[in-house]
Amino acid sequence: MSIEVNGGVTHGMGSPVFSLQGEIGIRDDAVAEDLRNTGFERAHLAQYWLDGSELRLVLYREREGDKPHGYAELTVKAVSEGGAFAGDYTLEMFDMTGATSGEGRTKTFDGKISCSVE
Predict the structure, then answer these.
(1) Rounded distance, CA 59 to CA 44, Å?
(2) Dihedral sign computed on CA atoms, order 92, 111, 77, 52
(3) Which residues fall within 8 angstroms of residue 8, CB to CB, at 6 or more apart?
(4) Closest CA to 56 of 1, 9, 108, 103
(5) Measured on CA atoms in the order 70, 27, 115, 105, is the torsion positive or negative?
(6) Is 35 in a helix, a strand, or coil?
């Protein structure tokens, strides 16, 4: 799996995010092919927190088009360690494709992540 997110944050006035782009890439057949490479933009920023030494980020994107409901949700929680941020991520992939009982499939990935803030 690969995760890359880049964004711009102003200083002051609550440090709003003025730009964001990112992408996840998954090589796991348990995830629907159209969700394996999901891109994110600022509109997909569900939650964001950058305060001193703490960074929290939630990106959420639903599957587009006329296929059954599916989504990717990336959560990052990191703290500063001498200028760089290190912490954990959780990536939840949900897919209703092929669901017969009304319940979809969820695949969750988690691990360590490093981030930098300039």
Answers:
(1) 5
(2) negative
(3) 17, 18, 19, 20
(4) 9
(5) positive
(6) helix
Record the tokens describing residue 88, joined without a space. Answer: 């954990």
Question: What single string gives the DSSP state of each residue in 5-34?
Answer: EEEEE-SSTT--EEEEEEEEE---TTS-GG
- Residue 40 corresponds to which tokens in the numbers above? 């994110």
Residue 42 dihedral angles phi and psi, to the nearest 5°? -55, -35
> Cα–Cα distance between 116 and 42 in angstroms, integer?
18
Find all residues with CB under 8 Å of 66, minimum gap 6, and list them.
none
Specify whether the CB–CB gap between 104 and 94 falls below 8 A. yes
Q: Which of 20, 62, 61 is nearest to 41 (CA)?
A: 20
Summarised one tens digit per residue, pLDDT across range 68-105 is 999 999 999 999 877 788 999 999 999 988 766 778 89
Please state the pTM of the whole predicted model. Answer: 0.89
Which residue reads 């092919």 in tokens? 33
